[in-house]
Design goal:
about 35% helix, alpha+beta, five-stranded mixed β-sheet, 14 helices, Heat Shock Protein 90, 4 domains
Length: about 450
């Protein structure tokens, strides 16, 4: 019997090559393998070079209808549209290949023949009944040894990658070997090259175009992020490996992690390790920044500003704190301490006055340290360490008695709470009342 398919042999022939033909046939076998069926893929040099594909089951004739598929809603499978086998036959025949298909209890032989019905060449399938062997066997003839060697490089299951050369997670694989650099696979089948990407990827759920030659950009970036997040959360990606991509200008860093990082996937310990590696590479005083201007600002506050991509900055800041927090903290660093003999007579007089004033309100334990801060804008800070409370005051404040009183009162009240807290405000109000009463009694 002869079945005439309404497919032109010229369909997609200018867009597809022998690889696309083989890919469509192989993906069906891999789908069956993933569904738990026994399969095989082998190549023979005989008969112009023959690729032989086998899997359990059978093909019914409705599979020759364009759009007929059993895979449309199955996320496990690669095929979706019910076009692969039919188009592969059409293109392969036009490229000079030959097909022989055992479809269970039928043998199919596709050919290009003239059709009276269509008044044009079309694909026809000659069928004959055979004994059902419980298998689908497809023989594709016309692949040279060189063709097959190139095709093997595009099918991951036909390559023996050492386990240390890839990281496997639920959403796919990160391919670490140099030979895989910038290669995108989808469920084991090559899709395209990725410009500027440091590693290769085999993604299970990336959205592809109809020809399976391009990945939708948003989907690609999302799923690359996804495999890295899973690798980090599962402890399969080391901080050093993550830093290697975050600090570079590779595609992963600029396209996938440009505006975010791996937040909430590695846990605090992971980001502590990222920060540790950062400090080993750049120094304990190094801080990640995004612009030269921020680098200058960091240098002005005694920090080393290292300009890095946003993803790298976010990863370090998750453990060490933001740029603003780091700079503010650095502003309060003490660069010099002053003894009594270093002070002018006016400064000494003001300190004696403030000490006696606090003694009069019962605060005899006030411990004041006169210092020079990194930032000249910084007035003072409160410190509690090992049970010892101290108020650090910038030396320039000491010469202004009013400013000295305000600063010491504000910092001293931090003994009860931080800035903006009710406890701090209440303590400051109470202290001012007592100080005013003491000053009033001094005037009288």
């Amino acid at each position: 019997m002869k079945l005439v398919l309404s497919i032109s042999p010229d369909y997609l022939v200018k867009r597809w090559s022998g690889w696309e033909v083989v890919r469509e046939l192989v993906q069906n076998v891999l789908d069956e393998q993933d569904l738990g069926h026994e399969t095989s893929i082998r190549y023979s040099k005989q008969n112009r070079g023959t690729l032989i594909l086998e899997n359990e089951g059978k093909l019914s004739r409705d599979r020759l209808l364009l759009g007929s598929t059993s895979k449309a809603d199955d996320r496990r499978t690669r095929g979706k549209f019910g076009e692969g086998l039919k188009i592969a036959m059409a293109v392969g025949l036009r490229l000079g290949m030959e097909f022989k298909i055992i479809a269970g209890d039928e043998s199919w032989t596709p050919r290009i023949e003239y059709s009276e019905e269509f008044q044009s060449e079309t694909v026809v399938v000659h069928t004959r009944k055979i004994k059902d062997r419980g298998k689908v066997i497809i023989e594709l003839r016309g692949l040279s040894v060189e063709d097959w060697e190139e095709i093997q490089k595009r099918i991951l299951s036909l390559q023996e990658l050492p386990k240390e050369k890839y990281i496997e997670v639920y959403s796919g694989k990160i391919l670490l070997d140099d030979s895989m650099r910038g290669k995108l696979f989808s469920k084991g089948l090559f899709v395209s090259k990725l410009d500027d990407f440091k590693y290769g990827y085999d993604l299970n759920y990336v959205q592809l175009d109809r020809d399976r030659c391009l990945a939708e950009e948003h989907s690609l970036n999302y799923h690359v992020r996804d495999v890295w997040k899973e690798a980090v959360s599962g402890g399969k990606a080391t901080p050093e490996l993550v830093m290697d991509i975050l600090k570079s200008e590779c595609g992963e860093s600029t396209k996938c992690f440009g505006g975010e990082t791996l937040y909430d996937y590695g846990g605090d310990a992971f980001y502590q390790e990222i920060a540790r590696v950062w400090e080993e590479q750049y120094g304990a005083n190094a801080i990640p920044v995004s612009t030269t201007q921020e680098s200058i600002q960091a240098e002005q506050h005694g920090l080393r500003g290292v300009v890095v991509p946003r993803g790298m900055r976010n990863a370090v800041e998750k453990d060490r704190g933001s740029f603003d927090i780091r700079v503010k903290a650095k502003k309060s660093d003490v660069v010099n301490r002053f003894s009594w003999g270093d002070l002018t007579e006016e400064e000494q007089s003001n300190l004696l006055w403030i000490s006696k004033l606090f003694e009069r309100i019962g605060e005899n334990a006030l411990s004041i340290v006169i210092v020079e801060f990194v930032s000249e804008e910084f007035l003072g800070k409160f410190s509690r360490k090992d049970g010892q409370e101290e108020v650090f005051i910038a030396r320039w404040v000491v010469s202004d008695r009013k400013q000295l009183l305000r600063t010491i009162a504000h910092e001293f009240s931090h003994s009860f709470g931080g800035d903006g807290t009710t406890d701090h405000r209440d303590a400051l109000d109470d202290l001012y009342i007592r100080l005013v009463m003491a000053l009033d009694s001094e005037v009288k």
